[in-house]
Amino acid sequence: MDSRKVGVLxxxxxxxxxxxxxxxxxxxxxxxxxxxxPAKQISAHxxxxxxxxxxxxxxxxxxxxxxxxxxxxxHVDTHMLEEISSxxxxxxxxxxxxxxxxxxxxxxxLKGHGVDVAESVDLEGKSxxxxxxxxxxxxYPFMLKSKTEAYDGRGNFVVKRxxxxxxARKLFGERPLxxxxxxxxxxxxxxxxxxxxxGVLTFPTVETVHEDSIxxxxxxxxxxxxxxxxxxxxxxxxxxxxxxxxxxxFGVEMFxxxxxxxxxxxxxxxxxxxGHYTIEACPLSQYDAHLRAILDLPIPESGLRLREPAxxxxxxxxxxxxxxxxxARQALESPNASIHxxxxxxxxxxxxxxxxxxxxxxxxxxxxxxxxxxDAVDNQKG
Length: 382
Ligand code: ATP
Ligand code: MG
Ligand code: MG
Hints:
- Helix 1 (13-24) packs across helix 10 (286-294) and helix 3 runs antiparallel to helix 4.
- The strands form 3 sheets. This protein has an 8-stranded antiparallel sheet with strand order 14-13-10-11-12-15-17-16.
- It has 382 residues and is α+β, with helices and mostly antiparallel strands.
- The chain has 12 helices and 17 strands.
- The structure holds adenosine-5'-triphosphate (ATP) and magnesium ion (MG) (2 copies).
- One magnesium ion binds next to loops.
- Adenosine-5'-triphosphate (ATP) binds next to strand 7 and strand 14.
- GO terms for molecular function: ATP binding; metal ion binding; phosphoribosylaminoimidazole carboxylase activity.
């Protein structure tokens, strides 16, 4: 199909699903991550690199081995990517990754481009009194967030009252922080956006359900959302991503407030958990779209449509080390369930070990089929 080689910083589940897509087109993907990483397990060639995507020398070596470098994670050294970008194409652009990896800088940037986000205040290097000023300004609760290295809610703290401020500051130690006004949303939604050399396309709007700040379920289409609101979410997501340089897929997480207005929560410059459903439910998956976008291959817009309603259920590490395997086994009995296990080895409570997609002619049929699996997940919780 294409003799160009793609290099990826990181080889977890997102890199693994990207390789599943690349394999079908016979496109070679070189992974930089530890030996035996999930993505490497399903791709037998000797151009993968064992090492850390945080190691400059390893990143340089990856750059030499391929034509386009992309990421499956935003917590990367963008100075290193800036350096290699004189020799190899980096997608999305390192400038985009630099802005997005700092959640506060990302919010400021979006605001500057007319995209609505939750109101936020920089708290880096600020005193306890200045933290309390935020409580007086925003009221309680408000959300304290680490600007960097945050995922699955590890980096967020709900400040419920003024007395919590001291403890919260200690908890985060030296991490750079900012505060966000509480978003009293009625639902969370997300849109996968595809940025190509020609413009911006979107997958459908999905509803995302988080538990303990980790995505648990996605519903495509969202429940109790009008077509008009779903369309507005796609437009907002497009506007947000059009503001950035570079190509590839981006996940846009949004809050749908009670008055039907939308705020962008955050952006992921890569395939995203809320886009897993596209593998089974859309003609092109988010992984197909990412590969095609970074390689300038055609992406027919109607290939991003929803063929059939779909529900995604994440399988997290549970109480027992093999809880996730038990859930996958139960899903084998479910006729419309597609099961994805990531090959991560040991489960820790809350670690993303796999996911299940149920598609059906109607969302309620999918809901009926997925319910026993949700119950099983709830029973195995760590
Ligand atoms: P991810 O794994 O998606 O990268 P993250 O660790 O970066 O997550 P956020 O997306 O900032 O964390 O927040 C996680 C969840 O916490 C959100 O999906 C939402 O449920 C809740 N949340 C975050 N910010 C706010 C807010 N300002 N008001 C209310 N709830 C919030
Ligand atoms: Mg995040
Ligand atoms: Mg998030």
